[in-house]
């Protein structure tokens, strides 16, 4: 019996996803809920589980293609009598009880299984990414033989992680041409980047690669003839661009700056690191600024609001879901810390560490990227002092913190070398008046300039 699996809605109402990589090929035996592909939505790379137990017959879409929700992506042979294939409505008929579809993306119980299913050896690793029309469904063996370890000589899928595969796709690198230097031949980011210097797509006379043809030649042989390269706008970059345009041309931005002496905060952090009770807490300047922001929101709540145009209402949040802008290999992500205002300094530091680690590893879930109420971005890690950050769509404010620098500064009537930081606050002038934005920014500055002042604010 042939069952067709169509791309499901992976959450957040997203209408399309890109197939980053297939982890199975025609002829592979799979189990219920087995990870069969990495799929990139506009928000995150997610693992796609198999909704059936059976044998893969056809991959309807190649890796690297953007597929709309509801389009067929893979067909399975689940045993029993044959029925019409993907193009016929009957393809979605109900399977036997023991082979019913699994709930996707983490919902519902998963079937227990021991180890990975056996897969037949294959000589063409490219089979996993060719259109359905060019794939002849192979005969299903009674007991597929155990495959050898993945190596370049066997043509098996290279061993790598989803973020590495996404990086290779973005750079146009075929992982089958990369030698892994990680444990047991695992391909790392450095392996992918090193491959860039070895080969590049050969341009046609217009400077772009010929459609449908993959050619490589040494980068050095191209000389100065290459004037530009082109890549499609899709996935996270497409979503980020649309969100920034919407925000910039919908919300009237105002940006204010405040430069302060944060030497007392730096000394506080030094004392915490020296204290055995906090030595392993990992509390840094970002956690302190985040805590100051949460305290300031309590005094000026208009910064924690949303303009609901369709409803004609201003939404006032009574909790702080703190978004944290994170630069990742996929682009800019803004996951958020739920109820950040309820966390103490140690809790904020731990949440920030978990959040940024997940974002850079590519494991952030779509749910973690929505629901923020106000955002903070640390541009200081790039050596930048100040900027004019654009609001995360739907939020009233975003705070950027610059680099901490040692500067001559007035201190107790004299000039001394002090630790100085510049804060940049952008806010939606429909929701926040200048006086409110200024008071909010001043409160944060007061806390950082003299942490003991918190006692007068709570």
Short synopsis of the structure:
By secondary structure, the chain is of the alpha+beta class. Helices cover 21% and strands 23% of the residues. Strands 11, 14, 17, 18, 19, 20 and 21 form a seven-stranded mixed β-sheet that branches. A four-stranded antiparallel β-sheet has the order 1-8-6-3, with no helix packed on it. A four-stranded antiparallel β-sheet has the order 5-4-2-7, covered by helices on one side.
Output the CATH homologous superfamily of the largest domain.
Answer: Chloramphenicol acetyltransferase-like domain
Provide the helix percentage: 10-25%
Query: What letter string, H or E per element, gives the SSE order?
Result: EEEEEEEEHHEEHEHHEEEEEEHEEEEH
Alpha plus pi helix count: 7
Sequence stretches where pLDDT stays below 50 over 5 or more residues: 82-155, 199-222
Portion in strands = 15-25%
Identify the CATH class of the largest domain. Answer: Alpha Beta
CATH domain fold name of the largest domain: Chloramphenicol Acetyltransferase
- First-to-last CA distance: 67 Å
